[in-house]
Amino acid sequence: MGLKRIQVVVHGRVQGVFFRATAQREARQNGLTGWVKNRRDGAVEMVVEGEEDAVKDFLAWAQAGPSTARVDKVETKWRSYTGEFSDFRIATG
Questions:
Q1: What is the pTM of this model?
Q2: 11 in a domain, yes or no?
Q3: What string of DSSP letters covers 67-79?
Q4: What range does the domain containing 39 cover?
Q5: Which candidate in 5, 13, 20, 28 is catalytic?
Q6: Can 20 be counted among the known catalytic residues?
Q7: pLDDT for 13-72, tens place per residue?
């Protein structure tokens, strides 16, 4: 299917509920690379790269997030794959 990249912004109760750590675990289990970070507006932003099916599975997970989260809205932008990441990390700032 090919390699894909998405930029995702998740809104709701998504900070302070282990969203980033769970996203990192989900991404790594699916062989994905990229990053996740908290935004100042209370959302969580992610950039994810990998095989298309794995990226779609991750996006489906992000629609609900971890059990402690409440996802109200997910914004997704498909981008061109770059291969710039070596792993999936929790970013700061």
A1: 0.95
A2: yes
A3: TT-EEEEEEEEEE
A4: 3-81
A5: 20
A6: yes
A7: 999 999 999 999 999 999 999 999 999 999 999 999 999 999 999 999 999 999 999 999
